[in-house]
Structures are given as C-alpha cells and as structure tokens.
Automatic annotation (TrEMBL):
<dbReference type="GO" id="GO:0002161">
    <property type="term" value="F:aminoacyl-tRNA deacylase activity"/>
</dbReference>
<feature type="region of interest" description="Disordered">
    <location>
        <begin position="158"/>
        <end position="177"/>
    </location>
</feature>
<dbReference type="Pfam" id="PF04073">
    <property type="entry name" value="tRNA_edit"/>
</dbReference>
<protein>
    <recommendedName>
        <fullName>YbaK/aminoacyl-tRNA synthetase-associated domain-containing protein</fullName>
    </recommendedName>
</protein>
<dbReference type="InterPro" id="IPR007214">
    <property type="entry name" value="YbaK/aa-tRNA-synth-assoc-dom"/>
</dbReference>
<feature type="compositionally biased region" description="Basic and acidic residues">
    <location>
        <begin position="168"/>
        <end position="177"/>
    </location>
</feature>
<feature type="domain" description="YbaK/aminoacyl-tRNA synthetase-associated">
    <location>
        <begin position="28"/>
        <end position="149"/>
    </location>
</feature>
<dbReference type="InterPro" id="IPR036754">
    <property type="entry name" value="YbaK/aa-tRNA-synt-asso_dom_sf"/>
</dbReference>
C-alpha cells in the first residue's frame, strides 16, 4: 500500500515543495480532515473513486474525482465529464487494489496512469494558486500539504463542473460552507 513516505519520496524526487503533517488524531476517512486540522472544508480535498461503464459495452474504467471535503459530486456530472455510459462509487476492495491506497484515504498523487482524474472546477477557481490545500496520504495519521497549483499540475487532473446537486449531499458532520 502507498503511504505518506511514498508520496514524500516522489515529491522530493520531483523537487516539489510540500509538507507531510502528522495529525493529532487518526482519520477514519478523508472527509474528517477539516475537523482534525481545524481548517475550512474548502482547504481540504478528498479523492473519490468511481467505477465507470464506457460508452462501448463491456469496457470499464475507474475515475478519480477531487472535491472539497464533505462533498459528493453529482453522478451525472461525473458521467458526463468522464465520457461514461454509467458511473457508481467504486467498491473499497477495487479502490484498494487499483490505487494502492486505503479506499477512504486516497491521495490524488501516484495514481495509475490509465486512471482518469477530474478536479472540481470550483477548487481551481476559488483557491489562489499558491494557497496550500491538504489531502489524504493513504494512511490515517498523516496529511499532505501542497499548493493547489502544484497539486493540479502534478496529478494532471482535468477540471470539470461536478457540482453536487444540493447542499444535502454534504456529510452530516460538515456544515455547508
């Protein structure tokens, strides 16, 4: 499984400014980052993984979607952005096997080359490029701090309009921002 050390080593190799933060309490999932770090949800990012049925019957692929903590993208928006016939959240065992991260703690870095990665356009538009955002590292006791511009550049995520349909899709322990 990939972890904070693997991410740290890759970022050092790429000469990328970043920090690995030791968390004061363990995460059960990446949506807990704002509460654990004491930051707004807009500064904490979660990578959700979807199983997609290609427009060609029988072909399937995975797509990662980077969103603000506590948000769930619109499945229809993910389907359209991914060019898929149908999408659904990927099963944890598939996420674990393909990404090599714990399913609820996926980092948007070091994902398989053939995995489509989308990022909510609002993240790119709303956060100044040099501002630091935090994301999971695959392990419950650490987080990655990195500028939003650097993260977007390194992971090569495709910006997409993947707004959740309403604030009702937020996790209950994260009030609407």
């Amino acid at each position: 499984m990939k972890d904070a050390l693997a991410i740290h080593r890759a970022l050092l190799e790429w000469e990328t400014v970043h920090e690995i933060v030791r968390l004061p309490s363990a995460l059960a999932n990446a949506d807990e980052l704002p509460a654990v770090l004491g930051l707004p949800a807009a500064r904490c990012l979660v990578t959700r993984v979807y199983a997609c049925d290609d427009v060609r019957p029988g072909n399937r692929f995975l797509a990662g979607v980077i969103v603000r903590a506590g948000e769930r993208p619109s499945p229809e928006a993910v389907r359209l952005a991914a060019g898929a016939r149908a999408v659904r959240p990927a099963h944890d065992d598939v996420v674990n096997a393909v990404t090599e991260y714990a399913a609820n703690l996926v980092c948007p870095l070091l994902l398989p080359d053939d995995m489509l990665l989308l990022i909510d356009q609002r993240i790119i538009d709303a956060i100044p490029e040099d501002d630091v955002v935090y994301t999971a590292t695959g392990e419950p006791s650490t987080a990655l701090g990195i500028s939003v511009r650097t993260l977007h550049t390194i992971c090569q995520a495709k910006p997409a309009d993947i707004r959740p349909p309403s604030s009702d899709t937020r996790e209950p322990h994260h009030p609407a921002a």
